[in-house]
Amino acid sequence: MAKCEVCGNNYDKAFEVVMQDQSHTFDSFECAIQALAPTCSHCGCRIIGHGVEANGTMFCCAHCAEHEGVSELKDRASAVSSTGTGYGNRQTGLQPDERDLPAEGRTDI
Length: 109
What we know:
Layout (H helix, E strand, L loop, with lengths): L1 E2 L6 E2 L3 E5 L2 E5 L2 H8 L15 E3 L2 E3 L2 H6 L42
Antiparallel strand pairs: 1-2, 3-4, 5-6
């Protein structure tokens, strides 16, 4: 059994994470997140998704970044479909693979 480096639990299903050439042992994703995930520079929460970054500073979302004076970050892109279905990209004219469409718009099923 391996011992979790965060909580000290000896667990037969512990796992190892290698980050920046350093090995870490955890008994749960919760402990791995607590030890390795970056924190938001505004609210202090652990960033377990992509988060957003400005000038080397990490934020959990664009809302928190804006509170710290960073206004150019966005949580999502706004793309309007040229097909009217909510899919596709107006700027490039590219359409999604049919597998990405709802069943009623597909011809392969």
